[in-house]
Amino acid sequence: MADPAALPALTVAMSVYNGERFLGAAIESVLGQSFTDFEFLILDDGSSDATAEILKCYERTDPRIKPIIRENRGLVTSLNEMIGKARAPIIARMDADDICRPHRFERQLAFLSDHPDHGVVGSWSEDMGEHGEPMFRTGADHPLTHDEVLATIAEGQQVICHPAAMYRRDVVRAVGGYHAAFRHCEDYDLWLRLASVTKLANIPERLLRYRRYDGQVSARHSTEQQYGTAIAQLAWEERQAGRRDPTARLQRLPPIDQLDALFGRSGVTRQVREQVALGLLYSVQAMREDGFDLLVQHLRDGGRRDGMWRTVVRLLRFGEPVRAARLAATLATTLAV
């Protein structure tokens, strides 16, 4: 029998908020790993559902599970808390609505053992629907080598699937962990900061089943996520150019119209507004909320109009006739100017 006082080789870190629906399947996929020498930190971030009861039940059946149950403080605080409590030198991220393939930890630990100059390794993922049904993947897979990661960052694309990530604890601690200002894209900001001090890579195997459904964070906060991603990339470009990162000490990102002042040059606000607005054209949630206002202002600033009449049609399909009419009027007005 393993010594309970011995340090584990791996810490698995999962934060949960009202996650009872998929939590059991996520936990079971971790407990069913071929690699077994881990502690499993599961932080209940102030849930009002049965999450706490589920965790206590699992704690009684497996001593590796170590629940942390407290009031709500948000994901960034929760992730940093688990990094601080982790006893193992390597941490595997996991979300409460996804499923690990059985050899995920084994494959990623082997990669980090064989590549001591790498601080982070992810993997390709397999999309599934709300009920676990297979989904057709669109878009490119995540980059494999560190050089490919850097090229992907320069293109403004995602580099590592957060719940599929495994990283060296001390490397992440050394860069200050997750930054509160980048809520809902805290992982992307972290990868970009880590890319300057260590190497990142992905294993070309689908070691995680990633659940996509309307209630997930990325669907509910798409505007804020796109905005933070654009700022994180700008901050990375500042660091690459040897300039000061103006976001380093921020607790919250400023409104978009303050970005010129933050970065100390004109044109940043307009650049970010265009990037975010064009990135939200297909998001039903964003077009029903503040993403639509960003789009209208982008057009009033003389921004790109490609495909905007198709967006008018999509708004009608989304059940937003008033916004469709407003966008059409904006297009007509800006065309006449």
Description:
With 337 residues, the chain is an alpha/beta fold. 45% of the residues lie in helices and 16% in strands. The protein has 15 helices and 8 strands. It has an 8-stranded mixed sheet with strand order 3-2-1-4-7-6-8-5, with helices on both faces. α2 links the parallel β2 and β3.
CATH class of the largest domain: Alpha Beta
Helix content: 40-55%
Count of domains: 2
Shape, per Cα inertia axes = globular
Average pLDDT number: 92
The low-confidence parts are: none
Quick tags:
16% strand; alpha/beta; Spore Coat Polysaccharide Biosynthesis Protein SpsA, Chain A; eight-stranded mixed β-sheet; 2 domains; 337 residues
Topology:
Layout: E1 10-16, H1 20-31, E2 38-45, H2 51-61, E3 65-70, H3 75-85, E4 90-93, E5 99-100, H4 104-114, E6 118-128, H5 146-154, E7 166-168, H6 169-174, H7 186-194, E8 199-211, H8 217-220, H9 222-240, H10 259-263, H11 268-279, H12 284-288, H13 290-300, H14 308-317, H15 321-336
Helix pairs in contact: 7-9, 9-11, 11-13, 13-15, 14-15
Entry summary:
With 337 residues, the protein is of the alpha/beta class. The chain contains 15 helices and eight strands. α7 runs parallel beside α9 and α14 runs antiparallel to α15.
